[in-house]
Amino acid sequence: MQPRNMSMSGVVDLAAVKAAQEAKAKAEQARAETARQGGGGAVSPADLVIDVDEAGFEQDVLQRSTEVPVVIDFWAEWCEPCKQLSPLLERLTVEYNGRILLAKIDVDANQMLMQQFGIQGIPAVFAVVAGQALPLFQGAAGEAQIRQTLDQLVQVGEQRFGLTGLSVDPEAEPGGGGAQAAPAEAVGPYDALLEAAVQALDSGDLAGAVQAYKNVLADDPGNPEAALGLAQAELLQRVQGLDPQRVRQDAAEKPADAAAQIAAADLDLVGGHVEDAFGRLIETVARTAGDDRDAVRVRLLELFEVVGAEDPRVIAARRALARALF
After folding, report:
1. 85-94 burial: b if 16+ Cβ within 10 Å, else e
2. Which stretch of DSSP H or E encloses residue 73?
């Protein structure tokens, strides 16, 4: 089985992540053990802030995001607010001591990346975690707000993906051999487990498929095939037993009801009406606020994961979502 290419899909929901103290403690232990063993692969504080262009985006952002959450600062020389925000982000990145990496992208020199992220104005700040992208904020932001956002980002990386971050050595040479962390020890293979999950899915044993994929992800949180399979199995599990006529009637009568629109979007996607599912949830994001809006946004991003980031419908919907959010 060949996993899908790492891509900017399935944005992680920061607001919805719940506490998982054991996972966090495990991540902290891993960081401490790395430091105790001499900081193999340690980077200089100067290497925590990097300039990135389109040619290096896959290696410098997508690949590095499997080690550490990558914050992306979209800026331009002519942008006055950027001149205030960028130094603050750089200072905080160094202060977080390897728990985040800051990638600075000049939008004038990298128009394609700006378009891919659906950016309408700068400064704009995104993050990529385990190959998955999410918007953080756009425009000016205070230090307290930024700290809170970064704390949530670190929590997501640790608890959901097991990202322990980078080991930092103040004595390391900037740009030295430690700039690229040593590759993690290989885990798996999981072909047998993944095949069992597929068989359970094909036989209609949705609960078994969900558990099988979760078993893989418990040991290998970044496994892309297991993440995709889990998203598909959970979607089928959600629609099992629903009354389609009742669900669609509720959605038609309650256009601003988050739960009603989410259920209808699930049915849309299972029925092959991908654009209808995406459009329904994007419209609901624009109509709702607070927890309801977060719930709709999270479900939309989960459906992106099911369809796949390379699909043109996902690319278009992600841009529409960014416009609805900002």
Report:
1. bbeebeebbb
2. strand 70-75
Q: Which one from 17, 46, 79, 315 is the annotated catalytic residue?
A: 79
What pLDDT does residue 165 have? 85
What is the SS3 assignment for 257? coil
Cα–Cα distance for residue pair 139/161, rounded to 1 Å: 28
Return d(Cα 202, Cα 288) in angstroms, integer. 37
Domains and CATH numbers, the chain: 21-179 (3.40.30.10), 191-325 (1.25.40)
pTM: 0.48
Top-confidence residue, 21 or 31: 31
Q: Which residues have C-beta within 8 Å of that of residue 41, sequence separation ≥ 6?
A: 34, 166, 167, 178, 180, 181, 182
CB-based contact 284:278 (threshold 8 Å): no
- Between CA 102 and CA 297 the distance in angstroms is 25
242: left (phi over 0), alpha (psi -120 to 50) or beta: beta
Identify which of 226, 217, 216, 102 has the alpha carbon closest to the alpha carbon of residue 161.
217
**Catalytic-labelled residue, pool 52, 61, 82, 235:** 82
Q: Is 79 a catalytic residue?
A: yes
Residue listed under structure tokens 């051999």: 177
Please state, in angstroms and as integers, the Cα–Cα distance from residue 18 to each residue in 25, 156, 309, following that order: 15, 9, 25
State the angle between helix axes of 224-239 and 191-202 in degrees (0 to 180), rounded to the nearest 10: 20
Spatial separation of the C-alpha atoms in residues 48 and 42, rounded to whole Å = 11
Compute the distance between CA of residue 72 and CA of residue 163 in angstroms, rounded to an integer: 17
DSSP 101: E
The pLDDT tens digits for 269-287 are: 999 899 999 999 999 999 9
